[in-house]
Write a structure and sequence with these properties.
The protein is of the alpha/beta class. The chain has a single domain (18-125), classed as Glutaredoxin, CATH 3.40.30. It is built from 5 helices and 5 strands; from the N terminus they run H-E-H-E-H-E-H-E-E-H. It has a 5-stranded mixed beta sheet, sandwiched between helices. The protein is globular.
């Protein structure tokens, strides 16, 4: 790994996944996540693994989740590996794509979204 990859992140670098994440890697995974939103709120975190800002926001969000007693069903999407799914999410929920992005879904509809430094656990709990 080069010096710049260490600082800014290599394109193939996979983040450490925390145990609370459920991955979205297929349309089936996305469908299940949306179905679960009919029972309780869920949140989808769209992450660009090659972006330093996205990685920083992800790490800060993960720390916030780990330090909270609030429980939320959290889904993780590597948007570079699964760009068609990222586009489908943007289309289905009529939300402009951003990265990083957190989309909160309840009863099959997006009820909140945030990007970059606005991403916070409070977006889900509202």
């Amino acid at each position: 790994m080069s010096f710049f990859d260490k600082i800014f992140g290599g394109k193939n670098e996979a983040p450490d996944h925390k145990s609370f994440w459920k991955k979205i890697e297929s349309e089936e995974d996305l469908t299940k996540a949306i179905e679960n939103s009919h029972h309780h709120k869920i949140a989808i975190f769209k992450h660009s693994t090659s972006c330093f800002i996205s990685r920083t926001v992800l790490k800060n969000f993960e720390k916030e989740v780990e330090n909270s007693d609030q429980k939320a069903e959290l889904y993780y999407l590597d948007l570079l590996a699964h760009r068609p799914l990222s586009n489908k999410i943007a289309d289905n929920f009529d939300i402009r794509h951003e990265s990083p992005q957190l989309i909160v879904v309840e009863n099959g509809k997006a009820v909140n979204s945030a990007s970059h430094q606005d991403i916070s656990l409070s977006q889900i709990i509202k």
